[in-house]
Write a structure and sequence with these properties.
TIM Barrel; eight-stranded parallel beta barrel; 10 strands; about 40% helix; globular
């Protein structure tokens, strides 16, 4: 396993990491979570991603119990959580980043995770109804209080990140260090264009999610939605509408052909493609089975096979697609 700096921070994160979205509680119970986390940790993964809203808090609870059972040294792993959607419907408890919500949200997450602090904390989405100054001051205080070590954003625009950074810089507060955007072969604009100037000017790090485009790039949805897959889960039907017939029947088979020529799986190819970008600090993997995770953890070995010619051939496949 290789490790990369989180942007300009001193923190070293494994280039591949394990996330709990969709899987923990929905597909994975306590014992399976322990197996998955141990598999990742033994392979050198040191970053485990979570969020308050995942399974309405149960994902954090499962991860907390798993960490307790595994008994790893606290300095040997990195844990994140994210705030915005909330767990209740009150006016100050849902879809907000106001001070009242954030102060109780971090305490709730720490209790569920059974930790004294999280390493990374994200504003899960931008909040147009809360002044940016209030958000930045509260997140900075969270770090000053020792409840988190670094704070960042998820799915914010470059303008919003820059605004938050400038406020923090003006008032000598802790600055946003990282962003967690979706990034894959079909979703490239934000990471490659919108954020381009932030890597050097702000030292922005990236913890990217959905390298497989929610499973589309694995090739398993080419002929429909198999039972037991993510897109077949109740509440995730929207994934089926997200993928066009052209993507499933034309683009994905061609990617599978490229993977075959490189002697790797389509999943490994898609993950390695994300790792090829030097601005990506870590690629977050999702898995419901140890076998699946073990296979995807081998993706780093494929990066060296992604020559300029291979990268150009992949780009050519998506040139006519509506790349987000």
């Amino acid at each position: 396993m290789h490790y990369r700096r989180l942007g300009s921070a001193g923190l070293q994160v494994s280039e591949l990491s394990l996330g709990s979205w969709v899987t923990f509680q929905n597909q994975v119970n306590d014992s399976s979570a322990i197996e998955l986390m141990k598999c990742a940790y033994d392979a050198g993964v040191n970053f485990f991603d979570n969020a308050e809203v995942y399974a309405m808090g149960e994902s954090e609870s499962i991860m907390g119990r798993a960490l307790k059972k595994l008994g790893w040294r606290r300095a040997s792993y990195i844990i994140s959580t994210k705030f915005f959607w909330g767990l209740h419907d009150g006016p100050n408890e849902k879809n907000t980043l106001n001070r009242k919500y954030l102060k109780q949200a971090i305490d709730g997450s720490l209790q569920r995770l059974q930790l004294d602090y999280v390493d990374l904390v994200f504003c899960h989405r931008p909040d147009p109804n809360t002044p940016m100054e209030e958000i930045v001051w509260t997140m900075s205080e969270m770090i000053s209080q020792g409840k988190a070590l670094y704070w960042g954003t998820s799915e914010w625009s470059s303008e919003q990140i820059d605004h938050a950074w400038q406020i923090a810089d003006q008032h000598h507060l802790h600055k946003p260090q990282m962003e967690q955007p979706q990034y894959n072969i079909l979703t490239r604009h934000k990471v490659e264009l919108d954020f381009a100037r932030l890597y050097s000017t702000l030292g922005l790090g990236l913890t990217t999610w959905s390298p497989l485009c929610s499973g589309l790039l694995t090739g398993k949805y080419r002929n429909g939605i198999p039972q037991g897959t993510r897109a077949a889960l109740k509440g995730y039907e929207w994934l089926q509408d997200k993928w066009s017939t052209q993507q499933r029947e034309q683009l994905v088979p061609k990617l599978c052909e490229i993977a075959l020529s490189l002697d790797c799986t389509p999943s490994q190819l898609a993950i390695a493609w994300c790792l090829k970008n030097p601005h990506v600090s870590t690629v977050i993997l999702g898995a419901s089975k140890v076998e699946q995770l073990s296979e995807n953890l081998k993706s780093a070995a494929i990066v060296s096979k992604l020559t300029p010619e291979v990268m150009d051939s992949i780009s050519a496949l998506v040139a006519d697609e509506s790349v987000a």
